[in-house]
Each structure stands twice: as structure tokens, then as C-alpha cells.
Amino acid sequence: MQRSPYTPGSVAPVVYGREALLRDARRDLAFMKEFPELKGRLEIFVGSRGVGKTSLLRTIENDARSLGFASCWITAGDGPFIGALVEALDTLSRDWQDTAREELANILRNLSVTVAGVKVTSDADAPTVEMSSLGRVVQQALQEAAEGAGDPGLVLLVDEIQAADANGLRALAYAWQHLQSEAPGLPLMTFCAGLTHSQDVITDAVSFAERFRYRQLENLDPESSRAALEEPALARGVHWTPEALDKALALAAGYPYFLQVIGDEAWKAAGYPDAGEVIGGSHVSEANSQFREVQRIFFRSRWMKATPLEQEFMSAMAADGGSPARRGEIAERMGRTTQSISMVRRSLMDKGLIDAPAHGYVEFTAPGFAEFVRREGDPSEER
Ligand SMILES: Nc1ncnc2c1ncn2[C@@H]1O[C@H](COP(=O)(O)OP(=O)(O)OP(=O)(O)O)[C@@H](O)[C@H]1O
Ligand SMILES: [Mg+2]
């Protein structure tokens, strides 16, 4: 018996289908190692819930570390962004020498005080005095941190960036702007990840948004999906039959989380195979009911997190099956104007339940969710 190599619900140790993005990131890291220089653009990987953003970011972090870089990980959304930054930089400096550590600690204290004094403003074009000074202190903190980290430099990783508050995003962008003109030789770079509408969130908060560069993560294509199922098994000497693979691929529809679930369930159905054993079509059929159950619970918990109005919106969307639905049509089905549903549309995007694949359209982020909504979603249900 061997443990399952699949990772439903946890970070993937190998990210399939992301070769081009990883190649670029690795090239940037290699360049920075050779020529220490601030990376002027903040790279942002955007994609739907469960598409593999955190796994990609962790892979880049591991790559950076194996090249000798220091790294700093921030997950936005759990409290103010600057607070999370302060904490992460403080952790980074934990095993530095006393003087370097003390200097950074002083700046971080100043940062905490400044952020506490910043007024909340939603107008991106009118930075308050406090705001620009917050950007300045963030700049100092990043500079001190990257210098203190030493060769070859510091890599900042920000996950769930769509959940960062506007003040935090603005301060980060200001800091980067200043650093680029005042400390261009600073070996510092940032990779971020967030839901598909991260760009809207950032553009609303920051006026010079061209500093950010977005790369879209999609579901895995058939070839990468196949590799994601086959290769972890092969590494343990276990083969999938072509029939088993085809069945599993059809169930997962390229969605990384579902690939891991069906892989894991098939592995169990095959009796935790030893090297030389095979996962066959009958194992996948056997795994199917368990897969459906996991999928149902996954959909159900998403559905229950939605408000009645959000549920009504999703029911209107589901009428189009799994294909993208027009906003105008959803509004009509709900008996409302397009404008009046824009808030609920946005909150569903914040929750990661829907995406906007093209202007004027929305679609569900997980394959099969539309069918679930049609089958089991009942907006009037007691919650
Ligand atoms: N490139 C990949 N190849 C195979 N499996 C992957 C890949 N990326 C992620 N996974 C798997 O998909 C699931 C979701 O991964 P991950 O948590 O990285 O996604 P995410 O986009 O960060 O999700 P969320 O939006 O919920 O934060 C996990 O089970 C993970 O093991
Ligand atoms: Mg994630």
C-alpha cells in the first residue's frame, strides 16, 4: 500500500500546465541574481477560485529560495494589508544581526503608527498627505528589508491580493513608484495572486495602475490535466489505463481541484496501489460516487455562503447551463435593471463564485456548478 500522491485541497507540490509562467518567473529571478535591480512591475497571477494560484506562488517562492533569495509571504484579507506586511517583514528579520534587525523594527513601528493615523479614502485621485507619507514609510521598510536580506535579494509574495484594502494597495504602489526612481539597484521583486477581478480592485484603488502586470491562469488543458493525473502515479510506479484516464479527465473538466479529488478517490478505489499495479476504468467508476459526493459538498458550501439575492442571481445564471451568461439577460430574468444587480455581481466575484470572462458576461468558476444550481439550488430554502 502506498499513500496517495494527490493533493485535493492543499498546495500542489508540482504545478502542471504553468510552464510558460514559471519559465518567465525563473528568468526574472536568474536575471536579478546576476544584475541586482528593482523589478519595476508587480506581477499578478489572476484566476478563479481553485485554479491553482497559491500553488503557483508557492512554487515560485521555492524556486526563489533555492536560488538563495529571501522571501516574504503575505496573505491579504485578514486584517489591514499594511499590518500583514509589517508582520511578514518582522518575521523575515528574525534571524538577522541585532543592528539590522533593530533598524527595520524601528521603521516597522513607525509604519504601524502611520497606518493607524491614515484616514480611509475611496478617491484614488486624491491621495491625502497621510497617504503619501504611508507610501514613504512602506518604501523605507521595503528598502531596509531588501538590503537586510542581502544577496541575491528579496522576493515578496502576496496572495489573495483582491482582498487587500485600498489604502494598503495604494501605499504599496506609491512605495514601488518611489523605489524605482530612488533605489533602482535594490534587489526586490513582487509576485502576487488574486481572483480574476483583482485588476478592477487595484484599478479602483491605485491611479497609476500600469505598475501592475496581469497574467491569467486558466483551467488545465487536456494534456496538462493528463500529466497531473499520470505523473504523480508514475513517480510511485503506478499506471493509469487509457480508459481510466479518459473517464477521470471527463469528470474533472480541467479544474485543478477536481483533478486532485478524482485522482485521490481513484487511488483509494484501487486499494492504495503498490508499484507495478494499475488504476483501471473500474476503479474510476467506483470512485465516481465519492467524487460526486465531494463535489456536491463543495458546491453546497459555496451555495450556502451566498445571500438570498446572490442565490437568485446564480439561479438566473444557471438557466444558461454552464456557458457564460449575459448580464442583461440575468437582470431581466430577475426582473431588475442591469445597474441594480452590479453590487450582487461584484460580491459574488469577491466570494470567487463567478467570473467575468468577457465584458458584459458572467460565468461560474467551477465546472458543474450550473447543473448543481439547477438541480439543488433553491433560493427560497431555509438557511
Ligand atoms: N497546476 C496544477 N496542477 C495540478 N493540480 C493543481 C495545480 N494547481 C493547483 N492544483 C490543485 O488544485 C487545488 C487548488 O489549488 P490552489 O489552492 O493553489 O488554488 P487557488 O487558485 O489558490 O485557490 P483559491 O482561489 O481557493 O485560493 C489544490 O487541490 C491543488 O493541489
Ligand atoms: Mg489560493
UniProtKB/TrEMBL annotation:
<protein>
    <recommendedName>
        <fullName>AAA+ ATPase domain-containing protein</fullName>
    </recommendedName>
</protein>
<dbReference type="InterPro" id="IPR041664">
    <property type="entry name" value="AAA_16"/>
</dbReference>
<feature type="domain" description="AAA+ ATPase">
    <location>
        <begin position="39"/>
        <end position="223"/>
    </location>
</feature>
<dbReference type="InterPro" id="IPR003593">
    <property type="entry name" value="AAA+_ATPase"/>
</dbReference>
<dbReference type="Pfam" id="PF13191">
    <property type="entry name" value="AAA_16"/>
</dbReference>
<dbReference type="InterPro" id="IPR027417">
    <property type="entry name" value="P-loop_NTPase"/>
</dbReference>
